[in-house]
């Protein structure tokens, strides 16, 4: 379905107040970190993928796309996948270890129907699916000789076992490493037990790695976990085992790093262990120079062994910035290595954003690496931005790779707008900037560049001149190298740099908001005035050629422009607890009485540069405003002079406005909120008086929702920017098109 397609009329509404909606993803393709990929050992064409904040996926070979598996999940934490395990007997059975961080809920999910339905079992140990060390693993493993028995290598609380297919768990007290316990600081975590590997050919043999500091990093049991012994030898104690795999010859191949990653790794190694002889061998690829200041920085993480030939081994580097991360391939058990980066090319035409910094390189954060057990030519590796696959792993000469991301939308959306003209959707992403979306079914060609700001923090458009757009953003550096501001005259297809004069330096030496991306920018309804929220707010009416100070507007407060009246801008002065308004195009602001508002407006305040403006303006009516005060919704029809409370039954977290329903005057409201004890996505077409649920059990996305907007030209259309599952959009179900432009 393309962006121009209209929504449905003949809205289906049940007596329970649910409006039936059809939901689809806006295609970008990949975009984020997917730390682990696992091929099924028993069914050709079946693979599983885990992401750090967007749930898990299954490759559907018939449909040739990845299928998201956890859109039904309403618990935010369960979208961070710590580990994944494919059953070695029954292809349709798969397990997910889900938990975003150590302070959030954690569970083991089990499916016996390829992920269509799940059994959830809350567990007493913590996980860290989106913490440092998320590339380690796999931490969850199934006993190939008793496939209802599982082991889980936890980060903080030792080794755990289940004898009933993950329904119940007990700590293995016989295991000698009890764990370091939960951190005391939310920003901290532990690598903990990094992997569990069963030997598929020898009953009872299992290995567990430890990425915590200490002198015991590899533990072995030959009786199914009843007794354990530390495996001596191998690399120095400061090398931490991060991933391992056992080949059909019984040899264990382990990758090592001097940290748990995905950042901060400076050294690494690859070793092989022969359990029958108790012998170690260092098979680290030899890189010249291998020592001294010129030696490449970085470690090794991904590891795979071909099922058809245990002498065929692949490993990936991680954090090797010079020259680039790579995959190494050996056909003789690690005696000799081939560096695949040097003879690989990548076709990213299906996801052109990967070329934004020049031709897409081999990748970074290559934590996951797998060789198809049914086809040794088919291999895949993950990066911080995509998943690459090849069908030519065994080929000599140039090797072709391409993104393997059809169906994967693993991105964090910071902001989005649906303008009154031009493309129906323009987005602001974390890490990859954002896009103008002309067709929702293809990865967009128009990425926000000139400048490229990795995070787009704010977006705005002129309500009566919607092709004029402005944005602010930041990079991953403390200070943006050039400018954190840009404007567009063609609806986001191309952008121009916008420089605002620097303000007075901060006494404490902290960077200015215009240097960090903290200064939001707003455009007037006619597209002629740009107002930037620096320490001393400034505006320009000539695209940045000259600037003037704004009076009466507090420092660093978010401004909203009226979408129809170019003279009007609105904001909240939290020091005086008053709404302020400009009637002269932004030059001067004055306080309003704000009749009907509570005395304390602080609930609408946020220092987060990514937070939406507290006041929203109806895109199709001058002076029609909305304000969310800590979940309570207020509205004004007279440019902010007076307000009235509405929607008393609902507590709102995020909300947006869209085209009014046929025969209605008020903008349609769309919200993430709680009503009657149910946290869901809701719609109101009567100014907030009554609400109907528009999502359902199959469309929850962890309820990790950062931004919501309706469409000002299509009644019923809603856009949702999630934190991990990309952008989804919905239209009322069934019937011919109605209310479209």
Automatic annotation (TrEMBL):
Keyword flag Membrane: no
Keyword vocabulary terms for this entry: Carbohydrate metabolism, Glycosidase, Hydrolase, Polysaccharide degradation, Signal
UniProt xrefs under Pfam families: BNR, BNR_6
Family to which the UniProt record says this protein belongs: Belongs to the glycosyl hydrolase 74 family.
Protein name: Uncharacterized protein
Species of the source: Novosphingobium clariflavum
């Amino acid at each position: 379905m393309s962006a121009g397609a209209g929504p449905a009329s003949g809205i289906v509404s049940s007596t329970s107040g649910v409006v039936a909606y059809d939901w689809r993803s806006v295609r970008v393709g990949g975009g984020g970190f997917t730390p682990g990929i696992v091929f099924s050992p028993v069914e050709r064409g079946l693979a599983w993928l885990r992401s750090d904040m967007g749930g898990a996926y299954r490759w559907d070979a018939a449909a040739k796309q990845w299928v998201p598996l956890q859109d039904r999940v309403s618990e935010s934490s369960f979208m961070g996948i710590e580990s994944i395990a494919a059953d070695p007997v029954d292809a349709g059975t798969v397990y997910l270890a889900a938990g975003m961080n150590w302070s959030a809920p954690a569970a083991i999910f089990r499916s016996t129907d390829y992920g269509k339905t799940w059994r959830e079992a809350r567990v007493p140990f913590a996980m860290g699916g989106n913490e440092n060390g998320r590339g380690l693993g796999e931490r969850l493993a199934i006993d190939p000789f008793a496939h209802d028995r599982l082991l889980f290598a936890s980060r903080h609380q030792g080794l755990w076992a289940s004898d009933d297919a993950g329904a119940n768990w007990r700590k293995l007290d016989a295991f000698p490493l009890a764990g370091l316990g939960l951190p005391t600081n939310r920003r901290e975590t532990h690598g903990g037990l990094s992997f569990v590997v069963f030997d598929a050919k020898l009953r009872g043999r299992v290995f567990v790695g430890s990425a915590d500091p200490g002198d015991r990093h590899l533990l072995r049991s030959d009786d199914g976990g009843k007794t354990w012994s530390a495996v001596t030898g191998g690399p120095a104690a400061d090398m931490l085992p991060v991933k391992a795999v056992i080949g059909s010859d019984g040899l264990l191949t382990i990758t090592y790093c001097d940290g748990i990653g995905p950042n901060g790794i400076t050294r690494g190694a690859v070793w092989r262990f022969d359990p029958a002889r108790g012998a170690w061998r260092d098979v680290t690829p030899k890189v010249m120079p291998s020592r001294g200041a010129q030696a490449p920085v970085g470690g090794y993480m991904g590891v795979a062994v071909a099922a058809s030939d245990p002498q065929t081994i692949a490993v990936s580097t991680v954090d090797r910035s010079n020259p680039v991360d790579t995959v190494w391939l050996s056909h003789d058990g690690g005696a000799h290595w081939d560096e695949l980066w040097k003879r690989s090319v990548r076709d990213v035409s299906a996801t052109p954003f990967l070329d934004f910094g020049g031709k897409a390189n081999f990748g970074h954060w290559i934590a996951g690496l797998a060789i198809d057990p049914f086809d040794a030519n088919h291999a895949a590796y993950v990066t911080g931005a995509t998943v690459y696959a090849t069908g030519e792993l065994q080929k000599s000469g140039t090797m072709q790779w391409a993104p393997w991301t059809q169906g994967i939308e693993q991105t964090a959306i910071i902001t989005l707008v649906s303008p009154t003209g031009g493309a129906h959707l323009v987005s602001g992403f974390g890490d990859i900037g954002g896009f103008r979306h002309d067709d929702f079914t293809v990865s967009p060609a128009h990425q926000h560049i000139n400048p490229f700001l990795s995070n787009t923090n704010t977006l705005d458009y002129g309500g009566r001149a919607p092709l004029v757009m402005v944005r602010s953003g930041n990079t991953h550096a403390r200070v943006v190298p050039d400018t954190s501001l840009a404007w567009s005259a063609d609806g986001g297809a191309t952008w121009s740099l916008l420089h605002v004069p620097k303000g007075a330096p901060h006494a404490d030496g902290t960077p200015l908001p215009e240097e960090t991306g903290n200064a939001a920018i707003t455009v007037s309804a006619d597209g002629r005035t740009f107002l930037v929220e620096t320490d001393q707010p400034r505006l320009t009416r000539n695209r940045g050629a000259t600037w003037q100070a704004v009076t009466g507007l507090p420092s660093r407060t978010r401004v909203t422009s009226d979408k129809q009246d170019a003279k009007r801008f609105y904001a909240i002065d939290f020091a005086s607890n008053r709404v302020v308004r400009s009637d002269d195009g932004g030059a001067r602001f004055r306080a309003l009485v704000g009749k009907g508002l509570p005395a304390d407006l602080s609930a609408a305040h946020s220092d987060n540069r990514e937070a939406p403006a507290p006041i929203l303006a109806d895109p199709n009516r001058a002076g029609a405003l909305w304000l969310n005060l800590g979940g309570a919704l207020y509205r004004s029809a007279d440019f902010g002079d007076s307000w009235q409370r509405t929607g008393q039954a609902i507590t709102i977290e995020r909300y947006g406005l869209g085209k009014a329903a046929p025969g209605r005057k008020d903008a349609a409201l769309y919200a993430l909120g709680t009503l009657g004890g149910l946290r869901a996505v809701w719609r109101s077409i009567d100014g907030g008086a009554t609400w109907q649920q528009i999502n359902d059990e199959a469309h929850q996305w962890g309820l990790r929702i950062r931004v919501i907007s309706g469409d000002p030209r299509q009644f019923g259309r809603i856009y949702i920017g999630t934190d991990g599952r990309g952008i989804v959009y919905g239209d009322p179900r069934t019937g011919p098109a109605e209310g479209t432009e």
